[in-house]
Automatic annotation (TrEMBL):
One of its GO terms (molecular function) is RNA binding. The keyword ATP-binding does not apply. InterPro entries: Csl4, EXOSC1_C, Exosome_cplx_N_dom, NA-bd_OB-fold. One of its GO terms (biological process) is RNA processing. This is Exosome complex component CSL4. PANTHER family: 3'-5' EXORIBONUCLEASE CSL4-RELATED, EXOSOME COMPLEX COMPONENT CSL4.
C-alpha cells in the first residue's frame, strides 16, 4: 500500500517500519531503532533531514482538519492513568491524522487482549505516558471512547522506563531498555506491505 498523502509526503502510524538503520541513515525524533530498522513511534509524516554526512529520519505530527474517531477507527493514544479495571487515555491521532484537541478514551480490562482475559493485570499492560495503538469499539458516554487493544497489532508502541530510557519490544508481554525489562501489552510490529 502506498502511504503517501495528497501532498506526496509519506504518512505513517506508530510501530510502522520506515527504513533500514545504517551508518548514514539514523533515527531522529518520533522514531526508534529495533533490529536494525527505523520504526515510527508517532503517527504523522516521515521527513528525512540531511545533516553533515547523515540523513536523520524523523516523524512529525501533521496537523490536519479535525477527524472524529468512529467505531472501527485505529487511534493513537497517550495513557494518562491506570487502575485495576481500566486505563484512561487521551486520543491524539485517528489513523495518521493528528487531532487538534485530544479526546478521552478508556481501555477496560476485558478489552486489553483476546485470551486469558480474567488474568489481565492492568499495570502489567500499560503505564502512564505509554503511547498505545487501539481500535475504537464505541462512543461511550460524555465523549469517552471505548477502546480495545485485543489484537496482536494493537497495544503499547512507545514507552519509557522509570529512568526515562526508551523501551523497545522484547516479546509480546515485555519491553526492555538498557537498565531493565518491564511488562507491557506490546503491539506486534507488522512489516508494512512493500511500498509501490
Amino acid at each position: 500500500t502506498n502511504m503517501k498523502n495528497d501532498s506526496g509526503k509519506i504518512q505513517c502510524v506508530p510501530g510502522q517500519r520506515i527504513c533500514e538503520a545504517t551508518g548514514t541513515q539514523v533515527a531522529g525524533e518520533g522514531t526508534y531503532v529495533f533490529n536494525k530498522y527505523i520504526y515510527a513511534s508517532l503517527a504523522g509524516q516521515v521527513t528525512i533531514v540531511p545533516q553533515k554526512d547523515l540523513e536523520v529520519v524523523k516523524v512529525t505530527l501533521g496537523i490536519h482538519g479535525t477527524v472524529l474517531p468512529e467505531a472501527g477507527s485505529i487511534v493513537t493514544c497517550r495513557v494518562q492513568s491506570v487502575n485495576p479495571v481500566m486505563a484512561t487515555v487521551s486520543i491524539l491521532c485517528v489513523g495518521p491524522q493528528k487531532l487538534h484537541t485530544p479526546f478521552q478514551g478508556s481501555v477496560r480490562k476485558q478489552n486489553v487482549r483476546d485470551h486469558q482475559i480474567d488474568t489481565v493485570e492492568m499495570y502489567n499492560c500499560f503505564r502512564p505516558d505509554d503511547i498505545i495503538v487501539a481500535r475504537v469499539l464505541s462512543l461511550g458516554d460524555m465523549r469517552n471512547y471505548e477502546l480495545s487493544t485485543a489484537c496482536n497489532e494493537l497495544g503499547v508502541v512507545t514507552a519509557h522506563c522509570e529512568e526515562g530510557h526508551h523501551l523497545v519490544p522484547a516479546s509480546w508481554t515485555t519491553m526492555r531498555c538498557q537498565c531493565r525489562t518491564e511488562p507491557r501489552k506490546v503491539a506486534k510490529v507488522v512489516p508494512p506491505k512493500t511500498m509501490t
